[in-house]
């Protein structure tokens, strides 16, 4: 593992840092948690991404013909590290950049690429991912939202849920069932949907951490032109796999410590442990120790992946485990902060920006669900990395409408 930048990487890092300093007054700065809500600071979030895009810091590995920089994944990772260092919050179009854009690049028509990609990079349009439904999350291919062909259009009816950022989104990638008589993975089709089209209703959901990061989305006779299809009819699962592979890399592949403030925790521990009574001190000391170890292990695994990328390779099993380990470490850090600070975790002693430790503790469980739950990731690791026998799946061959769903 190589902890140092090579000369080219160091030069690129200095370049990014200089650009961020030059534009600092135009950029949002804040915590990694929920205190800065894109829905209530939408204009500033959009401006931040536009300024970064104009500085050449968005879409770094995307091809130049699609408005990207034609750069490398290492440069993107360096820019991401420098954004965190400058405390720039998660970009408003992170779903578009990480998942929807790469799906349009892989499966969209030339016309779709022309119309959508440059605007997505500048956050002129914000995008969302409309996959999960009330009865299909982990088992995504069981979804029931239908699209029925009608002339040059498709007519969509159904409901999605947990749709991050739908309340500010202009477009979404929408996975639908177009042929219920085929096996469940074979009857799906993907579309780009205009979130402002008649018949689309978005209702924000309130989370226990206080924010409304995600939404319910209802489709009532929404018409989508056939030209907005991504891939062939019935090929939606293949298109969705492109999105999901990009999602795993975007969320967990880095094996980062997901922005959790472990240094702040250690500083609190130095200040506060001596003043705790002996019984609380022992438990808090153990919680802090466990959290710091897990967090640093995740961070160093991320460095290992970074080294592989830097040497021109592709990440292996450590990337699959990144999200699982990063989320577990995040929960340990937040729990240790609450244990250490007691009441102060609720009312004061910010963990990160304006986020209290208690707010961070309430935010963390969602990360163990988003983008593949812990249990589902363990299944994937067991089957694809360790080569264990797969789960029995009786529902793969019969028609979806035939009750094998
Ligand atoms: C913060 C956040 C943001 C999200 N953003 C989006 C978004 O933008 N777009 C979108 O489409 N979706 C989004 N989701 C939804 C997310 O993808 C789903 O919540 C997730 O896939 C789990 O699906 P589910 O909630 O239906 O739970 P279920 O699939 O019903 O799972 C319930 C429980 O059963 C377990 N389980 C399920 N299957 C298995 C199995 N085979 N083996 C062992 N255990 C199993 C799960 O681990 C879980 O504990 C988001 C979720 C969160 C929390």
Pick out its properties.
single chain; 405 residues; alpha+beta; Butyryl-Coa Dehydrogenase, subunit A, domain 1; Butyryl-CoA Dehydrogenase, subunit A, domain 2; 3 domains; four-stranded mixed beta sheet; four-stranded antiparallel beta sheet; 12 helices; binds flavin-adenine dinucleotide
Task: Characterise the protein shown here.
The chain is α+β, with helices and mostly antiparallel strands. It folds into three domains: 86 residues, Acyl-CoA dehydrogenase/oxidase, N-terminal domain (Butyryl-Coa Dehydrogenase, subunit A, domain 1); 113 residues, Butyryl-CoA Dehydrogenase, subunit A, domain 2; 119 residues. It has twelve helices and eight strands. The strands form two sheets. A four-stranded mixed β-sheet has the order 1-4-5-8. A four-stranded antiparallel β-sheet has the order 2-3-7-6, with no helix packed on it. A hairpin with an 8-residue loop joins strand 6 and strand 7. Helix 4 runs antiparallel to helix 5, helix 8 packs antiparallel against helix 9 and helix 9 runs antiparallel to helix 12. The protein is globular and about 70 Å long. About 1% of the residues have low confidence. Bound molecules: flavin-adenine dinucleotide. Flavin-adenine dinucleotide (FAD) binds next to strand 1, strand 3 and helix 12.
